[in-house]
Write a structure and sequence with these properties.
globular, alpha+beta, Alpha-D-Glucose-1,6-Bisphosphate, Chain A, domain 4, 156 residues, 28% helix
């Protein structure tokens, strides 16, 4: 990714448990505020999604994206934009590393919108998206329904 925004958080779970929640796309509307609808369009032989359609509603911004996913075991998942009405590009990743007390999750994101936007404003928006996503992921993984609910996801 060229210019990107990055942030990290420690989650009290193993990398496999965290990745199970990340891979459980059907549950995203329950723990991500902006994702209202999700549909897995393609999966790899291991059952993990390789292409996903997401309907996002963040108040003033409502868009439908199709993202392509690449998985590296329970260490990393990356995505890139396949199709969108409002975005020119969207590249991101979650990188997971076992640390004392759990897993350090690093979220990296680079977004390019079709409408003109100052770089400073775009980076601030990316930071808000990342911080909300990491907080939501932490809450979901560390909640009773988080890891238990994701156990049925194939590829774990």
């Amino acid at each position: 990714m060229a210019e990107h925004t990055r942030s990290s958080i420690i989650i009290a779970a193993t990398p496999a448990e965290v990745m199970a929640v990340i891979a459980d796309f059907a549950a995203y509307p329950a723990w991500t505020g902006e994702v209202k609808e999700i549909e897995v369009l393609e999966t790899a032989p291991d059952g993990r999604a390789t292409q996903v359609r997401l309907l996002l509603d963040a108040g003033a911004i409502r868009d439908e994206h199709v993202l392509g996913y690449t998985w590296n075991g329970d260490r990393e998942v990356g995505w890139t934009l396949v199709k969108s009405q409002m975005l020119r590009s969207l590249d991101g990743s979650y990188s997971l590393a076992a640390v004392a007390g759990g897993t350090e999750v690093t979220y990296q994101l680079a977004v390019d919108v079709k409408i003109p936007m100052l770089g400073m404003i775009k980076r601030k928006a990316e930071k808000v998206i990342i911080d909300r996503a990491l907080a939501g992921l932490k809450k979901r993984v560390e909640s009773p329904q988080g890891v238990e609910g994701a156990q049925g996801v194939e590829g774990q």
